[in-house]
Amino acid sequence: MAKQPMLKFVDIQRDMPSKRAADERKKDFHEIYAEFAGAKATEQASRCSQCGVPYCQAHCPLSNNIPDWLRLTATGRLAEAYELSQATNTFPEICGRICPQDRLCEGNCVIEQSGHGTVTIGAVEKYITDTAWENGWVKPAAPVTERAESVGIIGAGPGGLAAADMLRRAGIQVTIYDRYDRAGGLLTYGIPGFKLEKDVVMRRNELLAEGGVTFVMNCNVGVDISFEEIREKHDAVIIATGVYKSRDLEIPNSRSGGIVRALDFLTASNRKSFGDAVEEYDNGTLSAEGKRVVVIGGGDTAMDCLRTSIREGAVSVKCLYRRDKANMPGSQREVKNAEEEGVIFEWLSAPKGFTEDGGKVSGVMVQKMRLGAPDASGRQAPEVIEGADYVEEADLVIQALGFEPEDLPKLWGVDGLDVTRWGTVKAEFTTGATALDGVYAVGDIVRGASLVVWAIRDGRDCAQAIIERFAAPAAVAAE
């Protein structure tokens, strides 16, 4: 009888790829986790219980066929595992690195619920696709037939890139317009290299270009080209701009020098990693070197700012968050990594103003909080503890309070592009169709600030809807 290749979770313990020591990794921007070796990936994949109702798949926004590609990995069929993985996910090696698996697939693993420790799904996913790249299995789009229809995509983030890939594989002509000089959106300029090294993103951009996607970079829609001009050039348009407008604090001295936005700080750091000249970094405005840094916020962007500040040589790095550790929105794994690297978390602390010296910030006026009754979302609402205020000294304050959509109808001078009361574009669920004929919207500009994996899902769903729309007239003509 052949030996059972799966269901080994009782005998084999959960094991992650080795993590570089904090004292070593905080000196550079390289990824902190090592690659699985082949034997270790096989071993960890074999822990999957192959349950009848795969909750890991159900809680993945892309509905990745996780149990099957785990089984293929456990039995040494890596090429097939890659093919199955990329069938539902345009960028599996990126999701394997940056998805919050602890809140999605791994957090809902059946053997995790039974106390055996979840399967290390993200690490295996990363291993499969990195192996595919090394072996030349990852190929650019090569459609059997080229089609005459064209689609213009505004925004080269994960949603736009995912849509572009699917459309090109169907033979549709694709042009992407983006305001930045490199494609990738937040993958390129928002996420630090210690979570996602930039060559991983750049090789995907190069693959798309090899497959026939045309990139028009340094193109600011509404300035360099109008939205109507893009509509006239293409048979359909996808809006995939993301949300980049930072939320700011409106409290005393919030305009003092040294108070900066998270995305500006992260973009400067990432540009330096490419070797770009960044004046605001070089003159110290957007650099943490030698400074007492305070980051305000508790999401994943705040974690990125905290850990970037450590690597830039800050004297001290502290995080202010108005709730406790259990109620913060960011990944608990990222919090642990930050703590290991020397970040100090001040839980139940909220800013009420800033102190300044000569127009530059010198501290954050902090009010201590306690958790009271649940708010409308069901989370306990923070309440101020009277008389417990103090000043946290700071030379650099980074606001990581989330992002809001820009007013696209006003910026682009577009009539009929409906938006919600939050300013996001109104679009049909699954297809991304907007009120304007032939215009679609995907990702954060529809959902609000969300996960990369959801943007990929939206881009793929929208591309499929457009492919079916273009195929419909041909089917009618054939009849």
From TrEMBL:
<keyword id="KW-0479">Metal-binding</keyword>
<keyword id="KW-0408">Iron</keyword>
<dbReference type="GO" id="GO:0016491">
    <property type="term" value="F:oxidoreductase activity"/>
</dbReference>
<dbReference type="Pfam" id="PF07992">
    <property type="entry name" value="Pyr_redox_2"/>
</dbReference>
<dbReference type="InterPro" id="IPR028261">
    <property type="entry name" value="DPD_II"/>
</dbReference>
<dbReference type="Pfam" id="PF14691">
    <property type="entry name" value="Fer4_20"/>
</dbReference>
<feature type="domain" description="Dihydroprymidine dehydrogenase">
    <location>
        <begin position="25"/>
        <end position="136"/>
    </location>
</feature>
<keyword id="KW-0560">Oxidoreductase</keyword>
<dbReference type="GO" id="GO:0046872">
    <property type="term" value="F:metal ion binding"/>
</dbReference>
<protein>
    <submittedName>
        <fullName>Dihydropyrimidine dehydrogenase subunit A</fullName>
    </submittedName>
</protein>
<dbReference type="InterPro" id="IPR036188">
    <property type="entry name" value="FAD/NAD-bd_sf"/>
</dbReference>
<dbReference type="InterPro" id="IPR006006">
    <property type="entry name" value="GltD-like"/>
</dbReference>
<feature type="domain" description="FAD/NAD(P)-binding">
    <location>
        <begin position="151"/>
        <end position="459"/>
    </location>
</feature>
<dbReference type="InterPro" id="IPR009051">
    <property type="entry name" value="Helical_ferredxn"/>
</dbReference>
<dbReference type="GO" id="GO:0051539">
    <property type="term" value="F:4 iron, 4 sulfur cluster binding"/>
</dbReference>
<keyword id="KW-0411">Iron-sulfur</keyword>
<dbReference type="InterPro" id="IPR023753">
    <property type="entry name" value="FAD/NAD-binding_dom"/>
</dbReference>
<keyword id="KW-0004">4Fe-4S</keyword>
